Amino acid sequence: APPSGGDAGATEVEAEAEAVAVGERVVLGGSEAMPGGDADPRTAWLASAFGLDPDAEVTLERTDETQWTIQWTPQRTVTLEPDPRDRHGLGPREPIRFQIPVEADAVARPAVLEPIRDEQVLADAEVPVRVEAVDEVGLRRLAVSLEVERSGSAAVPLEFGEAFTGTLEESFPPAPRREMSVRLLLASADPPLAPGDVVLVRAEATDVFATPEGRTVRSEPRRIRIIGETDFGTLLRRDLARVRQEAIRIEAMQSELLSEVRDGEPGPEVARGQAELAERIASQREQVASLQERVGRNQLDDEPLRQVLRQSTDLLDFAERAAGEALDELERLA
């Protein structure tokens, strides 16, 4: 029986049997069965009446003359079968039983989506960054964390001058997933970046765990290495030469395939070959577009390199037109 007071026979227990996270506070409300007495025996009675762990930290609060709440922090799924009795031994009219599922709250999972891999750029490049975070219970903050390793020294926070106006941190109401983007203007770094420096880009997320400040987790870094114009131009020319040679091969293969379609009765293997070639053309277009974007982001003024990019684009344009003509002919002959 409770230490004192209350008619347990008239007890009403109200609870939302929704899943909660380990460490999250659970609140139950009831009415007209507020036990009196000293705090310690009253709390012990509540723990016993509600079938809670003996060592559970239970608090009791009266909200008005007829309402009260019980609060405690469960560490596992709780099945409650309270059986309160008053001083006369009277209990509830109907059995009371309900379950509160308790799920482990894993830490947030932040990730850098863009850049998709480590990069080498010029010191005045513009680098698009996109990050996201996921948490089953909820996120409350997402940020882009930036550090720099200068000349092999330990990483320190990367600072920007007034020219940089991007947002590197967002706070928001609890949400299971969040994404944010920012364009880093490396030319506005203060002090300026130099070849050999490495910028570390991480996603940083804070969840809505039981503690007011939550838990903060950082992702693995993307490494953006600063190089000089000579090295950067060499890398681009190497990549561009590979793309250009592939564009030349594709254009020649497409011309040959188109001749077969025009001159004879093309079999199933010709249609399959045309489909595969169309995929290669699309893939090469993406690579050329990526190279063009890298040149633009790094503000590289290299006209010979831009000329080779234009030649590669022209080859792919020709191959694409020939592919379209071949497909039209194949459909006509089908």
Key phrases:
about 325 residues; alpha+beta; 8-stranded mixed β-sheet; 4-stranded antiparallel β-sheet; 16 strands; about 30% strand; disordered N terminus
Layout: helices, strands, pairs:
Blueprint: E1 12-14, E2 20-21, E3 26-31, H1 39-49, E4 59-62, E5 67-72, E6 78-80, E7 98-100, E8 102-103, E9 109-114, E10 119-121, E11 126-149, E12 156-157, E13 169-185, E14 198-207, E15 216-218, E16 222-226, H2 229-263, H3 268-297, H4 303-333
Helix pairs in contact: 2-3, 2-4, 3-4
How big is the Rg? 34 Å
The unreliable regions are 1-17, 31-39
Overall pLDDT metric: 79
Report how far apart the termini are: 88 Å
Annotation, overall tally of beta strands? 16
Q: Which of globular, elongated, flat, extended, rod-shaped describes the shape? A: elongated
Number of helices: 4
Major β-sheet annotation: 8 strands, mixed
| Series of secondary-structure elements, N-terminal to C-terminal | EEEHEEEEEEEEEEEEEHHH
Q: How much beta, percentage-wise? A: 25-35%
User: Percentage of helical residues?
Assistant: 25-40%
Structural class per helix/strand content? alpha+beta
Would you summarize the structure shown here?
This protein has 334 residues and is an alpha+beta fold. It has helices at residues 39-49, 229-263, 268-297, 303-333, and strands at residues 12-14, 20-21, 26-31, 59-62, 67-72, 78-80, 98-100, 102-103, 109-114, 119-121, 126-149, 156-157, 169-185, 198-207, 216-218, 222-226.
Notes on the protein architecture:
It is a single chain. Helix content is 32%, strand content 30%. It is α+β, with helices and mostly antiparallel strands and 334 residues long. Helix 2 packs antiparallel against helix 3 (268-297), helix 2 packs parallel to helix 4 and helix 3 packs antiparallel against helix 4. The longest helix has 35 residues, at 229-263. It is elongated.
